[in-house]
Design a protein that fits this description.
Residues 1-29 form the signal peptide. It comes from Equus caballus. GO terms for molecular function: serine-type carboxypeptidase activity. It holds the Pfam family Peptidase_S10. It is a single chain. By secondary structure, the protein is an alpha+beta fold. It has 12 helices and 13 strands. Strand 8 (193-194) and strand 9 form a beta hairpin. The protein is globular and about 55 Å long.
Length: 378
């Protein structure tokens, strides 16, 4: 559920450095000492600690600017938790090719160029910053769009209050179980609304992998709902087939997506912990913080995002709140509004219209325009 986009300012170097850095996650296996380079791509493993390695994949800009020192590096970290930047983020959202290996017109690797490791900012895309604010807003949000009736709203709100009570008492493991209960109540009352886009329905959950042992049913359901969504069969076949052959460095005992469920299960006590204070620290330190959210997202709905934003103990928040938002248009010749934005000093908030949780997948043109605005390329 959390996606982070880090923006680095660039410095001139003797050779071009890629725009887009995709991080997969930890993996055990052999490590190649030197990166494998092919055309405008570079990939490799980096050792994080003993027997733990992280795979990364860099894309060079295909339309480099004349002034490389002024262009950004964008580093994409997928959520889930347990999702893959090099898989889902790459082929389903922002990479140069889609899952059918066809060029993506709205790829984030097209427009920009090189790097300097000065931390310039962070973008929080439909991010799980304050879980309880999200859960508390689910009922009112669904009710406002006619996906809950009065009885359904009451049932969802009752469970949400139980989540709030558990979080207030510091019972985060219990809060995670209640979070799963809240999602079940929503599915029952909405005829299976999709948590990633309320205009669609959930697909039936696939059978649980028989090779895994699940002892807590609520974690099973949560994992199925939030991790399997990021590993569709078409993407798994692509990553474990043609992409594996292309990269040539993946250990034989390592399969794409094989660790996702384990990652998810180990986050049980952390899911419901708020990190609003981290955002406050970034803002007070002068780091540029961009929050963007899809209008049709439920798991991290915009109402919940606005709620925790109002709780920020940032000295400039009153001035930010007093501003009026501005409309944004993908096509300068069109009057159709694609998004709204509000910015003050180092905080920006983008309301992305007609998009669910996966903004670049749902509204690629607007996501690309936003990226250009955030990195001051437009």
């Amino acid at each position: 559920m959390l996606r982070l986009v880090f923006v680095m300012e660039l410095a001139p170097r003797s050779s071009p450095v890629p725009l887009l850095l995709l991080l997969l996650g930890l993996s055990t296996g052999a490590v190649i000492n030197w990166p494998t380079e092919e055309g405008k791509e570079v990939w490799d493993y980096v050792t994080v600690r003993k027997d733990a390695h992280m795979f990364w994949w860099l894309y060079y800009a295909t339309s480099p600017s004349k002034n490389f020192s002024e262009l950004p590096l964008v580093m994409w970290l997928q959520g889930g938790p347990g999702g893959s930047s090099t898989g889902f983020g790459n082929f389903e959202e922002i990479g140069p090719l889609d899952v059918d290996l066809k060029p993506r017109r709205t790829s984030w690797a097209i427009q920009q160029g090189t790097i300097q490791c000065n931390f310039a900012g962070v973008a929080l895309g439909d991010s799980w910053i304050s879980p309880v604010d999200s859960v508390l807003s689910w009922g009112p949000y669904l009710y406002s769009v006619s996906l809950l009736d009065d009885q359904g709203l009451t049932e969802v709100s009752q469970v949400a209050e139980q989540v709030l009570d558990a979080v207030n008492k510091g019972l985060y493991k219990e809060a995670t179980e209640l979070w799963g209960k809240a999602e079940m109540v929503i599915e029952q009352n909405t005829d299976g609304v999709n948590f990633y886009n309320i205009l669609t329905k959930n697909t039936p959950m696939s059978a649980i992998d028989s090779s895994l042992e699940f002892t807590q049913s609520h974690l099973v359901r949560l994992s199925q709902r939030h991790v399997r969504h990021l590993q569709p069969d078409t993407l798994s076949l692509l990553m474990n087939g043609p992409i594996r052959k292309k990269l040539k460095i993946i250990p034989e005992d390592c399969s794409w997506g094989g660790q996702a469920t384990e990652v998810f299960l180990n986050m049980e006590k952390d899911f419901m912990k708020p990190v609003i204070s981290v955002v406050e620290e970034l803002l007070e330190a002068g780091v540029n913080v961009t929050v963007y959210n899809g209008q049709l997202d439920l798991i991290v709905d915009t109402m919940g995002q606005e709620s925790w934003l109002r709780k920020l103990k940032w000295t400039e928040l009153p001035k930010f709140s007093q501003l009026r938002w501005k409309p944004l248009y993908c096509d300068p010749e069109s009057s159709e509004t694609s998004a709204f934005v509000k910015s003050y000093k180092n905080l920006s908030f983008y309301w992305i219209l007609r998009a669910g949780h996966m903004v670049p997948s749902d509204q690629g043109d607007m996501a690309l325009k936003m990226m250009r605005l955030v990195t001051q390329q437009e």
